[in-house]
Amino acid sequence: MPNTILCSEAFWFALKNESKLVCEKEPMLASYLHACVQSHHNFETSLSFILSNKISDDVMPAIAVNEMFNEAYMLNPNMVEAAVADVQAIVARDAAVSSFLTVVIHFKGFQALQVHRLAHYLWENGRKELALFMQSRNSEVFSVDIHPAAKIGKGVMFDHATGIVIGETAVVENNVSILQEVTLGGTGSDSGDRHPKVREGVMIGSGAKILGNIEIGRGSKVGAGSVVLNDVPPCVTVVGVPAKVVGHPKCNMPCDSMQQNVFDDNTQ
What we know:
alpha/beta; UDP N-Acetylglucosamine Acyltransferase, domain 1; 2 domains; seven-stranded mixed sheet
């Protein structure tokens, strides 16, 4: 897959073409992909169908969830733009992925993030109880627990995603990669602004716990299993319990390189 960033229309054309090729190669998936992709006239209706069928339950039917997504996408097209950016970011960063279709159909990290975007939209528009319902279903279905008030940018990758927890006042800027079992949490029962602010380009390794109203500076890397309790400067690598600066990433955007071995970084 080329690294060129596609606009929404070009992305949708590529996604449909991938779906068509898979249908020809694997007829067992033809009816499924027809329902999820081929029968739709744009990406947002396709994504809405996929997510609503994932999130629905016996009390909240898929058609009702589908209406919520369609309304949100119509009134806030930035949500669709963010989803397109998320898919392309994952394909660019994940060596195990070579198609947009794989991400849209199968990747629960991507799907969980899009469900959060709906919950956030509902929260921002005063429909907080419904937003909390969507958060609960997101946690039950995908094992990803994000408070609806949390602010998350575009081009964000949740790799594997299981166990990710993001608190109410957390901020995740554009172009960030977060691996499984990461917590962006508070340090106690205080109210107010109490959760981390993760700046652009950051990569957070699996199992890292970042706690409190602290900042993870632009272009920094948090090593797997670290516990971060203080601000992290831009363009450094931190690791340990508690986390300490051990070096500097070899690139300006660790979110893109996805290099997990902190010993490969430049030393101080």
